[in-house]
Write a structure and sequence with these properties.
The protein is α/β, with parallel strands linked by helices and 386 residues long. 43% of the residues lie in helices and 15% in strands. α4 (83-93) runs parallel beside α5 (112-125).
């Protein structure tokens, strides 16, 4: 299948907007939204029969389908609303395990919602949150691994590692980092919010304790569809945020039923995977990575910017420093996003990181180089206007 603007009609995208922010919330194709609606209608035809006689089989079947896509086992996967919910489930489950002597390691790229959750955990348990400064810009992956060697102590209880940094799009060498952590018997939670569908993922080979990932971003599922993978060793004490009817009866059923909800987004994962595979699993990843690399190089050249990291350390998300005089404040990120949308009809996020203002591009199969040319025109115009 040919990618680019010719297939934009597979989504409900606004034709008037140059959409370069697939990374924030994803986009669900029309066909997958139709599947979600069909699940909702099926539920409403006879909700008692659906939930009592059909649901538990259906949700495990959906988990098995997702597990097959990710080369793992369905029994290790449960559905959650988003990666943040998955992280919260793990951290809340670990509350009794933390004491004032413990340290929790996170990276300097940690997602703000995860940081807020850790602030709560620290306030309750007095465990210390230690931020590892993972550099950006950098030249090789060893620069991303080395800071962890110095951060780990005999008090480190848990490490939360970003697989793809939301700030910059950098793919962290999580396999190497996790191996280092395992040598010291440190529990490991990998935040893969941006991973499923964007890059290859083999959870089993990472040897982590937990892995969370969104399916509504790069895997085209409806909003509210994410996964929590737990290794068999930690499933017994890994609990959902809402304890319900099946508390104490096992990892799968406790997460599968947390009370009455519309499970259409979870059950639609099969349709999302089918849509993804129809486009071609390898074709998608090759196209979106190549487009992100080419767009990044073009933008850096036109805007006289330095490339902050090697091409092979990105998937289809990439950040570049905004040219001009900026302080990298949150206010600036909102102002610039609003300016690009209102004045140039371009939707793109701005990130404040290390006291600098960065713009982050996404590349998806409905994008093509013309979109990034328009972005370059807009940024040049803003720069010259001062």
């Amino acid at each position: 299948m040919e990618f680019g603007h010719k297939i934009k009609n597979l989504w409900w995208l606004d034709d008037d907007v140059v959409f370069l922010n697939h990374g924030s919330f994803g986009l669900t194709p029309k066909k997958v939204l139709e599947a979600a609606n069909e699940w909702s209608v099926r539920l409403e035809r006879e909700p008692v029969k659906f939930f009592i006689d059909e649901y538990f089989h259906l949700i495990r079947e959906a988990a098995d389908n997702l597990a097959a896509f990710l080369d793992t086992k369905g029994e290790n996967i449960v559905f959650v609303e988003n990666a943040t919910s998955g992280v919260n489930s793990v951290l809340r489950s670990l509350l009794p395990e933390f004491s004032h002597d413990d340290e929790i390691i996170v990276t300097s790229h940690v997602y703000p919602a995860v940081r807020n959750t850790l602030n709560y955990i620290s306030s309750v348990t007095k465990a210390k949150v230690i931020e590892v400064d993972v550099p950006f810009p950098f030249e090789n992956k060893e620069e991303l691994i080395e800071p962890f060697r110095y951060a780990l102590t005999d008090k480190t209880k848990l490490a939360i590692i970003d697989h793809i940094a939301y700030t910059t799009g950098v793919i962290l060498p999580v396999k190497e980092i996790t191996a280092m952590l395992k040598e010291k018997n440190i529990l490991t939670l990998i935040d893969g919010a941006h991973v499923p569908g964007q890059i290859d993922l083999d959870i089993e080979e990472l040897h982590c304790d937990w892995y969370v990932g969104n399916c509504h971003k790069w895997l085209f599922a409806p909003k509210g569809c994410a996964l929590l993978w737990s290794s068999p060793d930690v499933q017994k004490f890994t609990k959902p945020l809402s304890l319900s009817l099946f508390y104490g009866e096992g990892y799968n059923i406790e997460f599968d039923w947390t009370g009455t909800r519309n499970p259409s987004s979870w059950l639609s994962i099969t349709a999302a995977i089918e849509f993804y595979n129809t486009l071609g699993k390898d074709n998608i990843k090759h196209y979106i990575h190549s487009l992100a690399v080419d767009a990044r190089r073009m933008l850096a050249s036109r805007l006289s910017l330095q490339l902050p990291a090697p091409d092979n350390m990105f998937g289809s998300l990439a950040a570049l420093e905004m040219p001009g005089k900026y302080n990298g404040t949150k206010e600036e990120t909102h102002q610039m996003r609003n300016l690009l949308l209102k004045e140039y009809n371009i939707e793109i996020p701005f990130i404040n990181y290390n006291d600098k203002l960065w713009f982050r591009i996404s590349a998806q199969v409905y994008n093509e180089m013309q979109d990034y040319d328009k972005l370059a025109d807009a940024i040049e115009d803003i720069y010259h206007k001062g």
